[in-house]
Amino acid sequence: MARAVTTLSERSAEAAYAGLQGLVPGFGPSFYTKFLYFAGKTVPSAAGPQPLVLDRVLARRLRSLAQAVGRETGHDPDGSIANWVWRDRNWSPHRYAVYLSFMQAAAGQAAATGTWPSDASPDLLEYALFSASWT
Questions:
Q1: How far apart are CA 109 and CA 124, in angstroms?
Q2: Among 87, 32, 30, which Cα is nearest to 55's?
């Protein structure tokens, strides 16, 4: 676990996440992203976005949003792409990096609307997604 913190500070959250995969028997991606989130509060990521939590709840919220956008735009009318991208578990390091980049960009867009705190970090958006309820 200490190596992951060093990797975070020297490389990136994606690289640190990659190094954690399969490291602790019985623990998976959700645990590793939570570990990196809290480690990232004390040791900033050398490159790229700061770590965030990605767990089943957040994946399902993102899948629901992606399905709605896919239907509305016609790019994913049956939701199969959203189902694959935002599945409940086994996120690759690349998928985690996509999530971090998406959340950083989405938080920036939300701040630009004037209805979201302009100084809010992506973890506020993460919390909003986690605590919201979509059906």
A1: 13
A2: 30
pLDDT in tens, 113-129: 888 888 888 999 999 88
CA–CA distance, 76 with 21 (Å, rounded to integer)? 30
Is the Cβ–Cβ distance between 122 and 99 less than 8 Å? no
DSSP letter, residue 12:
B
pLDDT tens across 77-91, in order? 999 999 999 888 888
* C-alpha span between 29 and 35 (Å, rounded): 10
Tokens standing for residue 131:
């605590």
Non-local CB neighbours of 98 within 8 Å, separated by 6+ positions: 85
